[in-house]
Specification:
Blueprint: E1 10-14, H1 24-28, E2 34-35, E3 42-43, H2 54-63, E4 69-73
Antiparallel strand pairs: 1-4, 2-3
Length: 74
């Protein structure tokens, strides 16, 4: 019998109190990291990360100079 591990969906959020608007995440993944038109701060929708973009989201989080991006599996 084979062992299987089910991985949950990946979620991501930007901490608005930490984000400084560098927009590196937005430039890397504009479909995930949106840019507020007035403040320039990045934000995300409250939906799971689409399949196939998980590695890019994690890379964006690791490249955030302010460490404002948090991700987790549910």
């Amino acid at each position: 019998m084979e062992a299987t591990t089910e991985v949950g969906k990946l979620y991501v959020e930007v901490d608005q109190s930490v984000c400084q608007g560098h927009a590196l995440c937005h430039r890397a993944l504009p479909e995930i990291f949106l840019s507020h038109p007035q403040t320039g701060l990045s934000y995300t929708e409250d939906t799971p990360v689409p399949e196939g973009l998980e590695d890019k989201v994690i890379a964006a989080a690791l490249n955030c100079p302010e460490r404002a991006i948090r991700y987790w599996a549910d």
